[in-house]
Amino acid sequence: MKSLQSVRGMHDLLPEQAESMQRLVQGASDVLAGFGYRLIQLPLIEQFELFARSVGEHTDVIGKEMYTLAQSDGDPLVLRPEGTAGCVRAAIQHGLVRTPQQRLWYHGPMFRHERPQKGRQRQFWQLGVEALGMQGVASEAELLLLGASLWRAMGLKGLRLEINHLGGAESRAHYRQALQEWLLVRADQWDGEIMERARSNPLRVLDSKDEAVRTALGEAPQISEFLSDAERAGFAELLEVLRENDLDPQVNTHLVRGLDYYTGVVFEWSSDRLGAQSAVCAGGRYDELVEQLGGQPTPCLGFALGWERVMLHLDAQAEAETEAAAGDSRDSAVDAVLIPLGEASASRRAILMANQLRTELPGLHLVMDIGGGNLAKKLRRADRLRARQVLLLGEDEMERGVVSVKLLYDAPPQGQFEVAQGSALLEYLRTSIHERGSG
Ligand code: ATP
Ligand code: MG
């Protein structure tokens, strides 16, 4: 009988992956506790209406990506596509937003019916954090520094931080209108999908992956021109605080989120190791969401990171580090190539020297360079042997009783230096053998 397979885009986490995710979650939960966050766990199934009212009807998530469960006796349900809406729903339902502040986190699977590819599944795991009842630069800086602390704890290196300010309700409405007018005047330039977004949700056009559209948008009105003085000052201060704390945020005025509930500061951490699916973590401020879902106005902010992408980044990073380490220590059987230069006497002297070194150091892997050509050609020959270094013996060296050592693979490069012939050279090469043995 034909064996059954997992559903397309939904993957098993085999013990090795499941355990490594578990370890990462454990590390993250320590960091989160340190920042005052408490765990909350939420249902996988919610009402369709929750997401329509929060994520927004004119978004890809609602329009195309929802797994909807029809019910014969009630409103449709959905498999949750993200965690913020459910978390805010729970906070309102249980009165958590009435207490002045809440720092909450959760993790678990999310579901989106997207085209599966590397770093994009239909069931994926997220860790989300939500800070409810907080406004101002301090809360935004804390959220971004929390992200940086998580990356440190998990050993993720080299993530890029992009940031933007979408404005509060008023400035965003003005911007939305200006952008929409700009887009509609140029209707002949856009395809059907862009036109549809331009009419229903113009900010989403900024998110287009189409190169031509992105270039054209260079001329479009920028949100930064529409921010109020207070918003502009807050954003500038946030950037300053982040830089003061060793983050390097890049302002990207086209950064918008795929979920409509964002207001104010939004950001994305991304990786150069993941190809097209580069975003590892994304979030921002959502000051209007609690009210939209029936609670009292409450300023909030949060982010979600994708575990599969975190793990893909860590794998790619480990692979690159292993390669770099192999390059550094020159994963090679040849300790050195001895290159006589110029005079025939150098060749005689080199034969003598090689013989002595091999006798004194039985473990030494020393290759004599034999054959003509200039120095560059000889170095290329040594390089093909994957030698760790060359010992150059020319007229000048012979006169002064030294050899010139050139390391072929060292980081950072130390260039060329001299070692006296005799016992100093023996000692130097003994260390080289030892490094090969331990490297
Ligand atoms: P993308 O632009 O890659 O579709 P998004 O803007 O839809 O991402 P968010 O809704 O902000 O993503 O979710 C936060 C994080 O969750 C993303 O940065 C990513 O790491 C992860 N994520 C989102 N969708 C998927 C998916 N289909 N498969 C795997 N991870 C995902
Ligand atoms: Mg998406």
Structure report:
The protein has 439 residues and is α+β, with helices and mostly antiparallel strands. Helix 1 runs antiparallel to helix 5 (137-154) and helix 5 (137-154) packs parallel to helix 9. The protein has 15 helices and 16 strands. The strands form three sheets. The protein has an eight-stranded mixed beta sheet with strand order 1-5-6-11-10-9-7-8, with helices on both faces. Strands 13-12-14-15-16 form a five-stranded mixed beta sheet, sandwiched between helices. Strands 2-4-3 form a three-stranded antiparallel beta sheet. Adenosine-5'-triphosphate is lined by residues 82, 112, 114, 119-121, 124, 126, 257-259, 277, 279-282, 304-306, 308-309.
Tags for this entry?
single chain, 439 residues, alpha+beta, 15 helices, binds adenosine-5'-triphosphate, binds magnesium ion
Order of strands, widest sheet: 1-5-6-11-10-9-7-8
Major beta-sheet overview: 8 strands, mixed
List segments where confidence is low: pLDDT < 50 over at least 5 consecutive residues.
none
Give the helix/strand class: alpha+beta
Shape: elongated
**Count of distinct strands:** 16
* Structural Rg: 30 Å
Helix content: 40-55%
Distance between the termini: 51 Å
Q: Strand percentage, roughly?
A: 15-25%
Number of H- or I-type helical stretches: 15
Bound molecules: adenosine-5'-triphosphate, magnesium ion
The average pLDDT is 92
